[in-house]
Design goal:
single chain; about 170 residues; five-stranded mixed sheet; three-stranded antiparallel sheet
Length: about 170
Amino acid sequence: MRKRRTRQHQIEDLSYNFVECQVLEAFCMFRFYFGRQYSYDATIETFGKNGEAENGLYYVQVKATEHLHYSRKNKGYELRLDIRDLDLWINEASPVLVVLYDALKKRAFYVHLQSYFEKHRELLKSIHKTKTVFIPVKNRFKPQVVKDFQRIKNDHYDRIARIQRYGTHLR
């Protein structure tokens, strides 16, 4: 019997396509990892106003579903994440976005992992194999979000450059 393409395969491909379109609309590049993946699906590379390549990048993990679950109690869409991924993502110097794609409504929501766990540190105290995060409805993934994270990434790399240039004391 041959391997079959499933609906889950299709919605995963649609999710990557959706995210890539938002990134391209923001005049950035979506670099999808082919082959074996170790916690990241892609990176986003950014460009300045004149089209020049900028330093750094940020990471993206894309999740896709036909069944978004909204938690009224936690005021967000539920997304269960593996502890092995969280351990990597939280300690990453560059921004890490997890994008949750809603295949039925062709829309997506995002969570900036480092910021989420800075605000919810108590969640890190008791993690077993997975941890559920809640993505607010207002966190729609659109081209403007890509641009917003471009600024976050650039600010981060500017701080690093100043430290390298002037040592540990910023001037």
